[in-house]
Amino acid sequence: MRSDSTVISCREEDKAALREAVTSALDAILDSFHDDSAFSGINPYELRKSISKLAFLPEHGEGWDAVLHSLRTDILPHMLRTWSPSYMPHLHSPALIESIAAELIIAAFNSSMDSWDQGPAATELEVRTIRELCKLLGYGEGSDGVFTSGGSQSNISAAIALRDRFISEHLGWDVKKRGLPDDFRKLRIYVSEISHFSFDKGSHMMGLGYDAVVKLPADHQERIDLEKAEEIIRRDYEAGLCPFLIAATIGTTDFGSIDSVQGLRKIADRYGMLLHADAAYGSGAVLSSYSGRLGDLSLADSITVDFHKMFLLPISASALLVKDGSVLDAFQLHADYLNREEDEEDGYINLVGKSLQTTRRFDALKVYVSFRMRGRDGYRKIMDTAIGNADYFYSRIASDPDFIAPIKPELSSVVFALKGGDDRNKAARRKLLAEGIVIGQTVFSGRTMLKFTLLNPVLTHEHIDMLIERIRNA
Ligand SMILES: Cc1ncc(COP(=O)(O)O)c(C=O)c1O
Known about the structure:
By secondary structure, this protein is of the alpha/beta class. The protein is built from 14 helices and 12 strands. The chain is globular, with a radius of gyration of 24 Å.
């Protein structure tokens, strides 16, 4: 590739340079796919040593061919291959093929979502996408949302915006302008004991601290125990604390268990609280034949939806949806250099006013491309395969004397263990990692457990059978 080309442009030589860079990178990616293992098995010390030896910022640029050669030999062979049927440790999915092409479009145009003049089509398509997503999840008129960098940012944004709304309505206090009210130490957020840690991080960032996050006990199905939850909230309320938010997890990180939105809505209403649904994981099931398992998410005041989990879109892609769009005013600020009010009065939408971020990626494009290309039936097949594979795997090991599997899956994750104790399970996972099979590990009731997070739609029952034998013998 000619190195006198810098950025892409309408000049033929720059188009040729882009074409060459992209096609040669694509060849390098495809050439690195030798077999369907997930990982080369290299140990961390060897990999660190080889990466530490790479040239980094040479005095004179080495050119594309040298960089490509290094990518081929030093980096790509040790990339984790998310598309492998032997990769299942995390809520970390392979990417749909068309969405990888969409990523190229996103990078080529490099739109930014903060102001209309940085992404006219991007802004209008995100607005349309948010409107359609609100409909899909059952929200009506007045709802709104914004794309974010991931489930953590969606959850934290929800907690901030709902806190401001609660304090404004209940205490007549403007947090945005005046900061936290004097009694802020009484504010409490209620989440499942197995909720995602983004609520703790968010509470820290909100100036409330970890102590403001009350962990509600989970029942034998790993869902919030509604009776105990109400007891805890009532006790806090009567003690003069200020419970303002409950977060239901719609698909917990390990088990995929689903808290009852209906039950938590009732509790929230009894104590004048707001309700968030963290459906970062489970929202994908809205397009499955099992959507009834999610409950009525539209009962929540806000919903986190991650597209880089069950929806199989490249990182990052998440949205925060809110039932009452005006709660996103928490993030509205005007700057003369960016989002002038006079432009907005004339119809130019500046999405920076709904977001924690300023510069922001055009991730909505990936949702548009894959939703339109696959349709409801295409996505239904993908989601049903993931959930069906979890059912199959669970049914296989639940009746196998070498394994224990404490909870029947509701989504696509199964937590299980080999009988024989923590060390046997830890050793099995490490051994498989070195063989290119990457499975998860977690703790349940104080015991080390293994975990399959099944997102990959190409995974077959035969492959699952093979994995069971590999784990048994590891
Ligand atoms: C239930 C749940 N919520 C939120 C998150 C955070 O999402 P992200 O990693 O996109 O920030 C995760 C991540 O796994 C999750 O499992």
